[in-house]
Amino acid sequence: MIKSRGKIPVAAIIGPTAVGKTAISLEVAPLIEGEVISIDSRQVYRYMDIGTDKVSREERLHTIHHLIDVADPDDTFTAARFVEEANSAIKRIIVREKRPLLVGGTPFYYNALFAEMLTASLESDPEIRKSLLQEAEIKGKKHLYHKLEESDPELASRIHPNDLVRIVRGLEILYTTGKPASWWYKHGKKIKNPYDVLYIGIIRSRQIAYKNIELRAKGQFQRGLIDEVNWLLKNGFDERFTPMQGFGYKEVIRYLRGLYSIDEALAYYIRATKAFYRRQMTWFKKFKPVMWYDLDETNKEIAINDIVEKILKHMGAE
Question: Do 63 and 69 touch, CB atoms closer than 8 A?
């Protein structure tokens, strides 16, 4: 049973891709009577299973997972929506006297969940969003990005010119509220983060992580990633949509379009994933405090036992 400490205690297993976070979480969760909340910006999408390396349905029957398969690939899944669904999942887990275990490698989502939050969600208008997406399709992403630069230069400076989802969201907030999104983030009334988070970090040496990345990518190709992407394209989920621009999917699309050989697609996919690993390491180094476990130096079973003990203590287990 979770005891109240003023804030809600939760635990999070963080770290870069291909270090074994999922494997650790699947062993830890049953030992703490926990349920996993996926903190992964790719696994929220349905039909994208192999390329996002989702836990299997059998594993999900053994340990309940939340925030997997909650949006279609043509949907706009914002950080605000993530926070709303994660908050709901945490509340429901606690009501059932289980323990929330956040697992994943998307730093932006952690920051969104554990930073101060606006007391009210910023306005959303599906018709405005649809119109902006149509404008982008006709005139290009750069056209919309220049609009954002003119109307909200502070937000534009933090967004990549190819990040259509966040460009559209920034303009949508401006058009629906009359004020730039950056103004709301500064001046909107906020509430304090309600959570007391225990960060558990999993790392491996870069050499091992890179080897795991290579093996995983090759395994995904062998298990049917090309068929998965082909099915998505045939059903209208093409590179217009942000999830299909992610590494793995982007390279396979280019193979299917005749732009890459299969060997080139695999090589570029591996290279993009390694670059992502390096970015994640940079981001997670800024997280504090974190209890890091180097699985190259620490026995896995010893690490799991120690993680379980620390989580139960943090959550006030009797």
Answer: no
- Percent helix, strand, coil in the chain (nearest 5)? 55, 15, 35
169-183, pLDDT tens digit by residue? 889 888 888 888 888
CA-nearest of 2, 13, 1 to 303 is 13
177 DSSP assignment: H
Phi, psi of 31 (to 5 degrees): -75, -20
Compute the distance between CA of residue 162 and CA of residue 145 in angstroms, rounded to an integer.
Answer: 8
Type of residue at 178:
G
Given a cut of 60, is residue 218 above it in pLDDT?
Answer: yes
* Res 226 pLDDT > 70: yes
Cα 42 from chain centroid (whole Å): 6
Q: Domains of the chain: which residue ranges?
A: 8-118+191-314, 126-188
**DSSP characters over 109-145:** HHHHHHS-EESSPPP--HHHHHHHHHHHHHH-HHHHH
CA distance 136 to 282: 32
Residue 247, CA atoms < 13 Å, CB-side half-sphere:
16
Q: Which residue has the higher pLDDT, 116 or 233?
A: 233
CA distances from 239 to 82, 201, 309 (A): 22, 33, 45
How large is the average pLDDT for residues 41-65? 96
Question: Under CATH, to which class is 8-118+191-314 assigned?
Answer: alpha beta
The answer to whether residues 34 and 28 touch, using CB atoms and an 8 Å cutoff, is yes
| φ and ψ at residue 37, rounded to 5 degrees | -110, 115
Digit-coded pLDDT (tens) for 247-270: 999 999 999 999 999 999 999 999
Calpha distance 241→145 (Å, rounded): 16
Widest pairwise Cα distance in the chain: 60
The CATH code for residues 126-188 is 1.10.20.140
